[in-house]
Amino acid sequence: MAHFMKGLDYNIYVFDGPGQGTALKNGLKLTHNWEKPISTILDYFGIKRASAVGMSLGGYLVMRAAAFEKRLDKVVAFDIFYSFMDSLRVRLPYDKMTKVEQLLAANQKEIINTQFYAMMKQNLDLNWKINKGLENTGTKTPYDLLKEFQKYNIKPILPLINQDVLLLAGENDQYVPSSRLPEIATGLVNASSVKSIMFDKASGGDQHCQAGRRELGFDKIKKFL
């Protein structure tokens, strides 16, 4: 990040929040209400006004923070992240995820755990996602994790965001459907301004967080700031 942000006339604070890096190693588990760690950082350093950039899942977390922490004046979703359930839908058949959500609504813990343990044996990507999620959140079973994941949904908080917002997306993002970009932009009805950028395959920035051409995303961020 330091390499890409070189020359930007900002004081930059980079930190591990709950569920990340050193914070996770020290026992702080992931939380959806990201305004709390952001507010703690701002309070600690006596910061009255700041811009915030959230990367990957941070695309949700930074928007959540902006909804409730008004010392943030500009917000960047690098890239957009609509909901955790989206990330599972991208990799699982639509009808299967629809059934899972119905079972969650009915609190069918045993059935969900049995189904997910079986799927995880056959799907390395799903196995990694679930086990990483268990580690980061401190939950014990796939059912508990999915219940926790349901808290990570950007739709209810979009009207609460009134800052300037930059939304980045890749058309072939392997975790977030690119169709969510206009949906998020439209939902930001009270934002001071909204700028949306979709990177296509020709640009080389079509993957998650512009993997392989990260400088494309950072260039747009620097111009926005």
From TrEMBL:
Q: Which InterPro entries match?
A: AB_hydrolase_1, AB_hydrolase_fold
Domain (AB hydrolase-1) spans 9-186
Q: Name one Pfam family in it.
A: Abhydrolase_1
Gene3D superfamilies the record matches: alpha/beta hydrolase
Top-rank taxon of the source lineage equals: Bacteria
Protein name as catalogued: AB hydrolase-1 domain-containing protein
